[in-house]
From TrEMBL:
This is AraC family transcriptional regulator. SUPFAM superfamilies: Homeodomain-like, Probable bacterial effector-binding domain. Residues 8-106 form the HTH araC/xylS-type domain. PANTHER family: RIGHT ORIGIN-BINDING PROTEIN. The keyword tRNA processing does not apply. Keywords: DNA-binding, Transcription, Transcription regulation. The keyword Transcription regulation applies. It holds the Pfam family HTH_18.
Amino acid sequence: MEWLIRMKDALDYMESKMEDNLNIDDIAKVAFSSPFHFQRMFYMITGVSVADYIRRRRLTLAAQELAISKVKVLDVALKYGYDSPESFAKAFRKAHGISPSTAREPGIQLKAFPRLSFHLSLKGDKEMDYKIVEKEEFTVVGKSVDFTTKDGENLRGIPLFWQEVNTDGTSDKLAKIGVNKDVLGICKDMNYAQETFSYWIAVEVGPDTDPQGYATTVIPAATWAVFTSVGPMPHAIQKVWERIFQEWFPSSGYEHTGKPEFELYPPGDPNAEDYVCEVWVPIKKK
């Protein structure tokens, strides 16, 4: 309940500052959270980043203002954080499908992105299997692609990335050079202010492993909350992610550290009803 109140307070704060220079540090302080953890929680619960939510709300308010007043387009653009009529027009057209000046026409159809609200619901009737693991830094070898969370691009792009590496034999090649047969799907270098992150499909390797032309990166030491997923991909693991952020974090006393997080896929049939894999989330005490 306390967490729900904090998220509501953060939404109230954002809504009151739509005409100002909103700062993620200030928003997170309202929720008594670190900036990274707040942004990660917000995205996992709502499906949009904080930056995208603010952008959509501002464009909704701008459209309403243009439709009912004679204020100049330039003034509306500046009011809602755009430094030029051109950048405002581009964003406005992408959101509403029309130009800002067209929004003044009688009977014109506009799109609205309503203010979000949180409501208390009782969950947790089903157990969550997890363990706390301390793991030293380790090196991985694999392939990576940079994604943006804008307009859900990552939700479309990551499955295609997996399809590519599974089809062209990359995942099999990586499994052969790893210290075990597990393949990892890693989110790292997450920047929710810029709405970008790097996604790796990789394997853990030893210090003397030949990367065989693949890229290498280091996953830093961390305390991990490790959650078990049972069932066919991708639905089963997506449900685990939802429960981690909707149920576990709000009641656990932990928060996300901002370090890389990953999914661990052992050998087996990922479409099987009994397929077991894991979600590893880096955590720290609040």
